[in-house]
Every structure is written in structure tokens, then in C-alpha cells.
Specification:
Elements (H helix, E strand, L loop, with lengths): L1 E7 L4 E8 L4 H26 L24 E4 L11 H4 E6 L11 E6 L5 E5 L3 E4 L7 H11 L1
Antiparallel strand pairs: 1-2, 3-4, 3-7, 4-5, 5-6
Length: 152
């Protein structure tokens, strides 16, 4: 059997879709490999559409002790290990902390609402997923340009 698995909800429940089952193992491998090829094509299209050089941000790209302050409105860096391998690049890591109890360093709540710098897409992360506050001087050129546009 092969299927898609999506993790949803606050308790990381699994939802399975497009299940395919067969007694013929080779038939299942054929379906699985077709789905894998399709996913690779989709990622290549996404990379081409985003049109930014490959780079991964590390702790060196962050302001020292930035997580000791309130994160609301600040450009933050998601820890690469918290992202799926195909999304462990600066264009997915950089975004603004736009709210949530996790923005306060001493809050009990952990949720941080995140707005991606490149695409403007919003998502939710846990405070533990934030690597730090971005140091504008240590960002890739594309991010510095996008940040200047955002400030205008």
C-alpha cells in the first residue's frame, strides 16, 4: 500500500489520502515512484518560481540574544532542522513574527504566527522552531533587497 500522509492539528494527528493498495508489489512501487517524480517536478518548479540562490541560514545569521526580546514585528529565522529537507533554505526560513503568545520570551504560550519574507504566505510555528532574530547585515542579497522593499 502507498498513500499520502499529512500531519494536522495541535496534536499532530495523521490524515491519509489517495491510498493505493495491491497484492502486486511492483505495481505499488510503480505508483509510489510516479508520485515521487511528480513531487520532484513540483519542487523544481517552485525553486524556479522563487528564483533565489540556494543558501541556508544558521545561528551566525542571527542577532546575539535576539530571542530574549519580544519577537513581534521582527524578522526571524526558522531553524533549518524544523523544516522538511526540501524546504531547508533561506527563502523558507525568513519571515516576520506577526503575533502569538510565543513571541514573548517569558510567555507560557508557544505559538508564533509567521509571515514569509519572500512570498508573504502565513503559517504557525512554535517558539522552539525560531532559530533567532535575523541580522540584516548577514542576510543573502535577495533578502536584503526584499527587506528594503518591505520597509518602504
Amino acid at each position: 500500500m502507498t498513500c499520502f500522509r499529512e500531519i494536522v492539528g495541535p496534536f499532530n494527528d495523521s490524515v491519509f489520502s489517495d491510498a493505493f493498495a495491491s497484492d502486486d508489489y511492483m505495481e505499488i512501487i510503480d505508483v509510489f515512484s510516479g508520485r515521487l517524480r511528480s513531487a520532484v517536478r513540483d519542487m523544481k518548479r517552485l525553486r524556479k518560481k522563487r528564483n533565489v540562490p540556494y543558501s541556508v541560514l544558521t545561528l551566525e545569521s542571527c542577532v546575539p540574544d535576539g530571542l530574549k526580546e519580544d519577537l513581534t514585528g521582527k524578522l526571524v529565522v526558522l531553524a533549518p532542522a524544523r523544516l522538511a529537507p526540501e524546504f531547508r533554505t533561506s527563502d523558507f526560513q525568513l519571515g516576520f513574527a506577526i503575533g502569538g503568545f510565543g513571541c514573548a520570551p517569558d510567555a507560557r504560550g508557544r505559538k508564533v504566527f509567521f509571515k514569509e519574507l519572500l512570498s508573504g504566505e502565513t503559517s504557525e510555528w512554535s517558539a522552539e522552531d525560531i532559530l533567532g532574530v535575523a541580522n540584516p547585515e548577514k542576510l543573502p542579497a535577495w533578502a536584503q533587497k526584499k527587506l528594503k522593499q518591505h520597509r518602504k
